[in-house]
Every structure is written in C-alpha cells, then in structure tokens.
UniProtKB/TrEMBL annotation:
Organism: Roseomonas fluvialis
Function: Binds and transfers iron-sulfur (Fe-S) clusters to target apoproteins. Can hydrolyze ATP.
High-level lineage: Bacteria, Pseudomonadati, Pseudomonadota, Alphaproteobacteria, Acetobacterales
PANTHER family reported for this sequence: IRON-SULFUR PROTEIN NUBPL (PTHR42961)
One family name in Pfam for this protein: FeS_assembly_P
Entry keyword Ligase: no
Subunit structure of this chain's protein: Homodimer.
Name the record gives this protein: Iron-sulfur cluster carrier protein
Record-annotated MIP18 family-like domain positions: 7-75
C-alpha cells in the first residue's frame, strides 16, 4: 500500500509546475524524501535559497496535489534550501535559538512554550503534563497542550476524548477540553494504528502539529515530550523558542540516571531546565492511606541539587491519580480540593512564573 500510494502521489506531483522554469517538480528533482504510509504523506521541495520566499505558492500547490490523491488522509510538504543567502531578519524570540537554514520559528503567537520531558518512559510524565496544563487553564491562562509523542500518544485517553479534529484546507482546528486547546497524533489516526515511522516522518508530523494547527494566541503551551533524547527533542529545540523544560523522574537510581541525561541534553541545545519533579515519590495505600517509599524517596531532589536546577515538587503514587487519568478526568479538575491537585497547582504556578520571566510574558497567576 505504501509503495503504490507513493507512486500515485509522485504521479500527481508531475502536474505541479514551477512557473519560473516550466518544469514539473518531480522532473526538476525538487521532490525529496517522499514517504507515504497509513494514509499520511510527507515530502520536501528542495529549492534555491534565494527563491525560497517566492516558493510558498508552489509548496502549497504540491501539498494540495498530494492531498487530493485517493487514499491520502493528510499531506505535508515543506521547503528546504540548498544554497546559502543573506540571512533574513528575525524577531528577538526567533533569533534567540533559530538555527541557520531552519527558516522562521514556529508558534509565534505562543507566549511561552514549556517541554515536559523524562529520560525514560513509565515515570508518569504525561499525567504530569496534563495536570499541569489543566491547572494553568483553571487559572485563566490561554493554554495549549501538544502531545509530541508520535509513537505512544496518550492525550486522547487522558483528556477523555476520541473526537477527530476539524480541518479547513491544510489547517487543523485543535480540540478543546478542560479549558485548553489540545492536539495529538492520536486524534488523527486509529488508536490501534502503530506509528512505524522513521525520524523524518516523526519530525514532519511534529512540524505539522505546530505549524498547521490553528492554535491562535496562547499564554503558554505545554508539550508532552516522548521519553528519551531523540528526534522529537531535537525538532522541538530547533523549531520553537522553548522557554524551558521540566524533567519528570521517579526517585530510584535508574530513573535518575536517565533524568540526568535529559537535563544534559536540554543544556546542550541551549534550552533552560526550569526544574525537576519527583513523581511516584511515595505510595499511598487506598485503604488506610499509609505511606510507603516503594522507590525510595528524595532522589530527584538530591539530583536536582547536584545538577544545579530547581526542585519543583513531589507527587505520590496514588491510585486515584491513575484512575482519573485513565478515565480522562485529570485530578486537578476532578478532585480540586485534594492535596495532589493543590500540589499540581503550586508546581504549575512556579513553572509559569519561571517561563514568564524567560519570555517576558504576562499575566501573573495566583494559586490558592
């Protein structure tokens, strides 16, 4: 199916001609990296950098031609350049980290973008990201929540919706849930469809969810990162002006070792680490509320001190947090009077304070 779909897309692209040369984009050798799988198509148009500013209509035409092919659910085309030219002026936010050759940074209307990351999976990062995002929205901020985990998207489950986003042309409308705007690859594909994609497709999907989604003006966007230090982390650090990263870890040594790698990775790409959260810090028995340090306790605090970053707080391994997350009702909204909801709100306020300082965003929020 993939090979036949790619051939059909390539044939459709032969009808798209560069008005400057009269050649179609395929014959001219402009189409690079064409990948078609599971109805999703991605490719780039390689153009001379000095013509890049005038090539957007051609890119849009090529993308529309690919999207019209039967069997294509969504198509993404990006421009790449192969010759150098004088740099274009950038805004202060863009200039801070925009790598040369990458073009303008994405999400220019978002005041602060914060990545919630972990060095390894299974530490409750997504639960933390969702509750922090909802806590920020409950304080009146305009919040976006982006699921950057292409291989294991969890937002549909944790937000309690399998609704498909509406699209107008190439622009997708994010879903609204719990007072925030949300987007995940899980909203676009069947929940049992495995994302067997190589790095370029992952990066293309991320850029699509940032650049072709109608996020509008936001005070803050929380990005639920995939675990590890791979393509998604590199794409985010290069394509958006991250205000900082929050690292989630459990207390035991093996998780802290991976958290340490996460901190160092963000430092290498010049993204400030806003702090470390210790999740599953202790276990609360659902019957008697007895506390047990199943994975040890305080390891993330000690690691934060060793790395010279702020320790933001700790959250317990509690059955209610997991049950509510699985039910699509984050604890900050389902049990707002619980100690755990209060801790999420406190951490969210501190994250916003630090992100706001990094980007001169506004307004401040008050935590009860």
């Amino acid at each position: 199916m993939g090979d036949s779909l790619a051939a059909a897309v390539s044939a459709a692209l032969r009808a798209v001609k560069d008005p400057a040369t009269g050649k179609d984009v395929v014959s001219a050798g402009m189409v690079q990296g064409l990948v078609a799988r599971d109805g999703l198509v991605q490719f780039s148009l390689e153009v001379p950098r000095e013509r890049a500013a005038q090539m957007e209509p051609l890119r849009a035409a090529a993308q529309a031609a690919a999207a019209a092919v039967p069997g294509v659910l969504n198509a993404t085309a990006v421009l790449t350049a192969h010759r150098t030219a004088a740099p274009q002026p950038a805004t202060p936010r863009q200039a801070a980290r925009a790598p040369s050759g990458q073009g303008p940074m994405l999400l220019p209307e978002v005041g602060a973008i914060v990545a919630v990351a972990s060095g390894k999976g299974g530490v409750g990062k997504s639960t933390t990201a969702v509750n922090l995002a909802v806590a920020l929205a409950m304080q009146g901020l305009r919040v976006g929540l982006l699921d950057a985990d292409i291989y294991g998207p969890s937002l549909p489950q944790m937000l309690g919706t399998r609704e498909k986003p509406r699209a107008s042309g190439n622009i997708i409308t994010p879903l609204s849930r719990w007072g925030l705007k949300a987007m995940s690859i899980g909203f676009l594909v069947d929940e049992e469809t495995p994302m067997i994609w190589r790095g370029p497709m992952v990066m293309g999907a991320l850029e699509q969810m940032m650049g072709q989604v109608e996020w509008g003006a936001l005070d803050i966007m929380v990005v639920d990162m995939p675990p590890g230090t791979g393509d998604a982390q590199l794409t985010m650090s290069q394509r958006v002006p991250l205000a900082g990263a929050v690292i989630v870890s459990t207390p035991q040594d093996v998780a802290l070792l991976d958290a340490r790698r996460g901190v160092r990775m963000f430092e290498k790409v010049n993204v400030p680490v806003l702090g470390v959260i210790e999740n599953m810090s202790y276990f609360c028995c659902p019957n008697c509320n007895h506390r047990t340090d199943m994975f040890g306790h305080g390891g993330a605090r000690r690691e934060a001190e060793r790395l010279g970053v702020e320790f933001l707080g700790e959250l317990p391994l509690k059955l209610e947090i997991r049950e509510l997350a699985d039910a699509g009702t984050p604890i900050v909204t389902a049990r707002p009077d619980s100690p755990e909801a209060a801790e999420y709100r406190r951490i969210a306020a501190r994250v916003w304070e630090k992100a706001r300082a990094a980007t001169q965003a506004a307004p401040a929020i008050v935590v009860d």
